[in-house]
């Protein structure tokens, strides 16, 4: 079975602020690329089957409604979640076990106003 997600885009109104937020909570370096119509910032993707980007440009509007993207937070999402508010985000749902016992999830609002989730096995 293949992964159903191949690319995800997180919209931003201030890409510098968004890159700082995601770099801090995931403790990764995020590369920014300026293009004629937009600016993109790529999450590290070496060895990944899914490519994730933060995008600022026309037609990219942050939202707290609609599809919820759950980001892989490693073994224990609490390590990432604990950095959300100190990095400018807001926790909506604390670490919570899935009803089917498949792991844990949490929901947050990023610095741009997007609602996203975190997932981990522990």
Class by SSE composition: mainly beta
Query: What's the shape?
Result: globular
Using only C-alpha atoms, the radius of gyration works out to 14 Å
Name of the CATH class: Alpha Beta
* Beta-strand proportion: 35-45%
- Write the CATH fold name: 2,3-Dihydroxybiphenyl 1,2-Dioxygenase, domain 1
Count of individual helical segments: 2
Please identify which CATH superfamily we are dealing with.
2,3-Dihydroxybiphenyl 1,2-Dioxygenase, domain 1
How far apart are the termini?
A: 24 Å
Series of secondary-structure elements, N-terminal to C-terminal: EHEEEEHEEE
Plain-language structure description:
- The protein is mostly beta strands and 122 residues long.
- It has a single domain, classed as 2,3-Dihydroxybiphenyl 1,2-Dioxygenase, domain 1 (Roll), CATH 3.10.180.
- It contains 2 helices and 8 strands.
- A 4-stranded mixed sheet has the order 1-4-3-2, covered by helices on one side. It has a 4-stranded mixed sheet with strand order 5-8-7-6.
- It is globular and about 45 Å long.
Topology:
Layout: E1 7-11, H1 15-26, E2 31-34, E3 38-42, E4 51-57, E5 69-72, H2 78-81, E6 90-97, E7 104-109, E8 115-120
Parallel strand pairs: 1-4, 5-8
Antiparallel strand pairs: 2-3, 3-4, 6-7, 7-8
């Amino acid at each position: 079975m293949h992964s159903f997600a191949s690319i995800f885009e997180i919209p931003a109104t201030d890409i510098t602020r968004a890159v700082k937020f995601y770099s801090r909570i995931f403790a990764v370096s995020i590369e920014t690329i300026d293009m004629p119509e937009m600016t993109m910032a790529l999450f590290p993707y070496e060895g990944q089957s899914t490519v994730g980007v933060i995008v600022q440009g026309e037609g990219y509007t942050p939202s707290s409604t609609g599809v919820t993207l759950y980001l892989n937070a490693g073994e224990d999402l609490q390590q990432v979640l604990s950095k959300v508010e100190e990095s400018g985000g807001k926790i909506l749902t604390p670490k919570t076990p899935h009803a089917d016992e498949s792991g844990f999830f949490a929901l947050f609002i990023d610095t741009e106003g997007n609602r996203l989730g975190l997932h981990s096995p522990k």
